[in-house]
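= Protein in question =
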Amino acid sequence: MLLLRDRRSELEEAGVSAFGISRDSAWSHVAWRAALDLEVPLLSDWNGEAVRGFGVAQD
């Protein structure tokens, strides 16, 4: 996440829209964004549907 934060302008110049996704709650993401000073959107996949769809689920 810190790499995305630190290189955000480079990614935007390249036309990349970065985001984070995890099974943590939306409230947890609010805390992470504040603690790390993130502007990258964080998506909550609390039921694991997206991570399974992307094939990156970890049990």
Observations:
- The two ends are 21 Å apart (CA to CA).
- Residues 32 and 46 are 16 Å apart (CA to CA).
- Residues 26-36 form the longest helix (11 residues).
- Strands lie at 20-22, 42-44.
